[in-house]
Specification:
The protein is α+β, with helices and mostly antiparallel strands. The protein is built from 26 helices and 35 strands. α8 packs across α9, α8 packs across α10 and α20 packs antiparallel against α24.
Amino acid sequence: MATAASAAEIKKIPGFSLVTDQLKSRDWRINHLYFIKNVDGKETRFNRNAAQKAFAQNTWYRDVICKARKLGFSTDIAIQIIDESIFNSHKVSAIVDYKLPDAIKKLDMIRYAYERLPTTIREVVRLTKDNEAEMHLSNGSKISVGTSYRGDTPQLLHISEYGKISTDNPNAANEIKTGAIQSVGMNGKVFVESTAHGAGGEFYTMVQRAEAVQKSGQELTKLDFKLHFYGWHIDPSYRLQNNLVTITQEVTEYFRLLRANHGLIVDADQIAFYQKKLEELGPDDIKSEFPSIMEECFFNSLEGAYFKREMGRARNDRRIGLPVPYDPTRPVNTFGDIGMDDEQAIWFHQTDGVRHRFIDFSQSSGEGLSHYIRVLKEKAEERGFIYGKHYGPHDLSVREWGNPSVQTRAQTAAGFGIKFIIVPKVQDKGEAIEAARRFIGLSYFDSVHCAEGIKALDNYRKTWNEKLAAWSAIPVHDWACITGDTKVLTRAGKQSIKELPDTGEVLTPCGWKRYVNPRITRKNAPLVEVKFEGGLLVRCTAEHLFLTDSGWKFAISLLKDSLIQSSLSRLPSISTVDYIAFGPVKTISRAVANAFTALCGQPFMVPSLQAATSTIVKQAIPREMASKISNVFHLPSTSQLPGGIGRLQGSSAYSRPAPAIRLLNGIVRKLVAFGIVVTRSDRSLGKSGNGKIASVLFAGLASIAWFGARAIRASIARTNVDTLRIVSVEKLPDLEDVWCLTVPEVNCFSLENGAVIHNSHPADALMCGAMGWVPDNVPSSKPKNKKEGSTWSA
């Protein structure tokens, strides 16, 4: 309904009385007054299509729209904005889009419609300001566009492509949520429309919340978002002659299931259209671009996702989306990614030797090993799990080395009855990703208990390399973002992250580690300023993670006097050089050990280290301790199983007899000491054939003395690192590009004052299990009985 001020002016238009009833009707005006360019670029009178009409009949104060491509919602909302602005005085409208050029195009559409109104209307409501980002009308109405909005209180707000904003620029999405949306009054209108881009982020959360309210049946308040879904099939133009298209059995079955499970009925010409779009887009993108039902909107829609194809196939095979029951006749294995007090993830797994079932998932942040153990016990009590094997990452066995008086976390867990199979670290992350891809291809995921884990796998994606305009092989860590002028500790001293070379070394709590790919992660991100005691100011995103004395916390969650962990020693007696040399000493010592075994052979390593260490400590030490020391030096090895199947042997199994493994060439080898495979010739002569015991003792003594001194000092330094005190955390009005880098080995690095930043991802837990998994045996492909077969079938 027009306000009095505008209606009075418009009634002065000659001939107004002839159409007064129509002009009072908003629906009539929208379907008769305005012109747009159609898909062919031709001028045409705007008339709502089927999807737009359905939406107009069900609109609310706040609407969130999930949709297929090209249904015209942006056009419909643009026409609503210009109509509201002309026929209501002092109407303030705003459009927020993914990129500024996209927002400007929407304002161009509004301007196009205004310029083609009857002259008599334009003479009454004139343009008083007109540029690429703003339009002001003589009745006091204003329309502005941008990538965010903070200004006047708008009565109408349109947010377009919020899904893509949420995925690519989480800070901008949060700014829209906390700024633009909150600026709209309770009686104002908010339109949020987007195609989906991954099962995560603010748009996904908004949809999930609106769907939960919708399913509950409770009455909406003015501040609740109403959920709308419009699939491709609502558009009558989405059809092809069915006699010209060959329909595959897969598509026929897909629509049969849609009809049976969701009551969706489409005709042959619509199926023909879908078939062609499937051939054009492929199975990975068809569901996000042309969803048939609400659930499909977020399937495999994230660009650069590592497991996009595998997760898509799993859904098509119905290995995702259905309950997967716990089989009490089989043990439950766990795959865990257990960082040092950081983000943890546990997958609960069963198998029949060929197929895999993930029946539960748990994720936490800022918890220690005790939390991991507690979760396993709670799951056993709640669901009756009987555990089999526990697979854990390599760092379970390395946290306390250099301080033999303290147990490793693997040993601590063993004290509680949880014996971890430690999966060796892979140097190439791509190997773990490929192993996970193969694993997913044989797996079923419980739709209820694994929902968060499935979402994490869907969203595990690559980093976009702007220089190459391509996806890099490095997993993205969206939350670690700092401004380009922030200095980090490198081998060359303190350097701004934006000035770093493409690769180098940075300081971490584990010593110097290699980094790669310093890059801009987000454009025009909103910032917070973290002030440390001592005056250092760090500008970063609100979700930037700092390692506090109580675990990992977002920058925005830090409080005055919060304590941040540092990589630097505070003890004058322990030089920083000794501490940060810890990493290189370990690397050099391993090189010494490898050179030693190349000269003298592996069998001499344990006795020589036993003799050398006994000489240093002035007392005899047991052979087992020398065997432990030898494990520190050696990387995990891979031996060959019959049939060419690779089995990873962890370096933690020292002095443990191993069964003989006959290789394909007929030579029998044994695993000795630290898991290295040697032949009889190796054991007797050494690899070079001329090993001498004097050389053995000298090399062992030198490496142990050098390594031991540095490791002990590093251990003392590690337990006495500085803690940094927070003075304040404040939101900034600035928008600025933010940067990140990747440290593949430890996924953390230090700012110039030693403050530690870290990141992790739940997909790492599944990759850990996939890399370490070796079946006890390979059963027959036929089930033992009908009951077992039906339990493990799709």
